[in-house]
TrEMBL record:
<feature type="short sequence motif" description="RDXXRA motif of the pArg binding pocket involved in allosteric regulation">
    <location>
        <begin position="338"/>
        <end position="343"/>
    </location>
</feature>
<dbReference type="InterPro" id="IPR023660">
    <property type="entry name" value="Arg_Kinase"/>
</dbReference>
<dbReference type="InterPro" id="IPR022415">
    <property type="entry name" value="ATP-guanido_PTrfase_AS"/>
</dbReference>
<feature type="domain" description="Phosphagen kinase C-terminal">
    <location>
        <begin position="24"/>
        <end position="255"/>
    </location>
</feature>
<feature type="binding site">
    <location>
        <position position="92"/>
    </location>
    <ligand>
        <name>ATP</name>
    </ligand>
</feature>
<dbReference type="GO" id="GO:0005615">
    <property type="term" value="C:extracellular space"/>
</dbReference>
<feature type="binding site">
    <location>
        <begin position="208"/>
        <end position="213"/>
    </location>
    <ligand>
        <name>ATP</name>
    </ligand>
</feature>
<dbReference type="GO" id="GO:1990424">
    <property type="term" value="F:protein arginine kinase activity"/>
</dbReference>
<feature type="binding site">
    <location>
        <position position="126"/>
    </location>
    <ligand>
        <name>ATP</name>
    </ligand>
</feature>
<keyword id="KW-0547">Nucleotide-binding</keyword>
<keyword id="KW-0021">Allosteric enzyme</keyword>
<feature type="binding site">
    <location>
        <begin position="177"/>
        <end position="181"/>
    </location>
    <ligand>
        <name>ATP</name>
    </ligand>
</feature>
<dbReference type="InterPro" id="IPR000749">
    <property type="entry name" value="ATP-guanido_PTrfase"/>
</dbReference>
<keyword id="KW-0067">ATP-binding</keyword>
<dbReference type="InterPro" id="IPR014746">
    <property type="entry name" value="Gln_synth/guanido_kin_cat_dom"/>
</dbReference>
<keyword id="KW-0418">Kinase</keyword>
<dbReference type="InterPro" id="IPR022414">
    <property type="entry name" value="ATP-guanido_PTrfase_cat"/>
</dbReference>
Length: 360
């Protein structure tokens, strides 16, 4: 394995298969926050303290393997170019925060990129497990297994009453953040999402953008996750999230049926216009591309567009991001240049598909 492998492929291997409810749920994620005893937490550590923790962790994890996951690749953050870091964020392999803490920080990634372990981010260890579709329980099982494996190598900072101790108070307890990435175009088109999002918050969950806290919901893609980790078991946190997401799935399906029943011509017009923009534009900015990709994906899910696969749209959602665009074309690009290259890349990729025009 090498860094080049992780940043050259827009689609991680784990994303190439579709999980349950793949028409709405793009991915399921479990993230565990852990710190080590006898080391200052990264957010309060001096440069020397960060360095000591970094080398302590590296000695015990570099070139290690976890069962069927295979060997992890250790990637130092301070050895990467800014665009390389941006690509890893766009692929959800690292968090935007890890870039800020890049001094004596690293990430371990397994071969199919379904597991990444961030080192010296906000906490000493951030374990992330990703599954396609709606597979929260499967992600929890894997993350617990990796957590047990790591606990054999490290003494975790743990309090009998408070649970796992973390840099941010909202992570204290289980240290678990469960999240599901969902595509909700019909709820947005019918404006029902405006009243659903506040209701979700009342269940102790939060609706965020595609890259988590503080990010924008591009292309009608939202991240639904728990807010608190104290006072509930890991299983209860996951089950609460599962229940809400199952309701969201039903609401989105109902909104899609309503659009087909009451506004089919208008919906088809929107979808095919978006396909035309993607297929023929010479300039397209990232927000417009994300919106059009969302419309076309909805058309595929509803059977209105045939001959274009969901996987291509998943790929384009990553390929058209600023970091990946610049990596793909092997040059630094201004915003205007990115808009031109983005349109070129989308046209080339869609031309590989056997798009079938609708019949009246």
């Amino acid at each position: 394995m090498s860094l080049q492998k992780f940043i050259d492929q827009a689609i991680s291997p784990w994303m190439q298969s579709e999980g349950p409810d793949a028409d709405i749920v793009l991915s399921s994620r479990i993230r565990l926050a852990r710190n080590l005893t006898d080391f200052a937490f990264p957010v309060n550590a001096s440069k020397d303290q960060r360095e000591k923790a970094f080398h302590y962790i590296k000695e015990r994890l570099e070139k290690e393997a976890y069962h069927s996951m295979g060997q992890f690749e250790w990637i130092n953050m301070d050895g990467l170019e800014p665009i390389e870091k941006e690509v890893l964020v766009e692929k959800h392999l690292i968090s935007p925060n890890l870039i800020q803490y890049s001094n004596h920080a690293a990430v371990l990634i397994n071969e199919n990129e379904s597991v990444s372990i961030m080192v010296n981010e906000e906490d000493h260890l951030r374990i992330q497990c990703l599954f396609p579709g709606f597979q929260l329980n499967e992600a929890l099982t894997l993350s617990n297994g990796i957590d047990d494996w790591l606990e054999e190598k490290f003494n975790y900072a743990f309090h009998e009453t408070r649970g796992y101790l973390t840099s941010c108070p909202t992570n204290v307890g289980t240290g678990l953040r469960a999240s599901v990435m969902v595509h909700l175009p019909a709820l947005m088109l019918t404006q029902r999402m405006n009243r659903i999002a506040p209701a979700i918050n009342q269940f102790g969950l939060v609706v965020r953008g595609i890259y988590g806290e503080g990010s924008e919901a591009l292309g009608n893609v939202f991240q639904i996750s728990n807010q608190m980790t104290l006072g509930k078991s890991e299983e209860d946190i996951v089950e609460d999230l599962r229940g809400v997401v199952m309701q969201l799935i039903q609401q989105e399906k109902a909104a899609r049926r309503d659009l087909l029943d009451m506004s089919k011509i208008q919906l088809e017009d929107r979808i095919y216009r978006s396909y035309g923009v993607l297929a023929y534009s010479r300039i397209i900015h990232s927000k417009e591309a994300a919106t059009c990709l969302s419309d076309v994906r909805l058309g595929i899910d509803l059977g209105l567009i045939k001959g274009v696969s969901r996987s291509i749209l998943n790929e384009l959602m990553v390929l058209t991001q600023p970091g990946f665009l610049q990596h793909y074309f092997k040059e630094a690009l201004s915003p205007d240049e990115r808009d031109i290259k983005r349109a070129t890349l989308i046209r080339e990729r869609l031309n590989l598909e056997d798009f079938q025009k609708p019949t009246d």
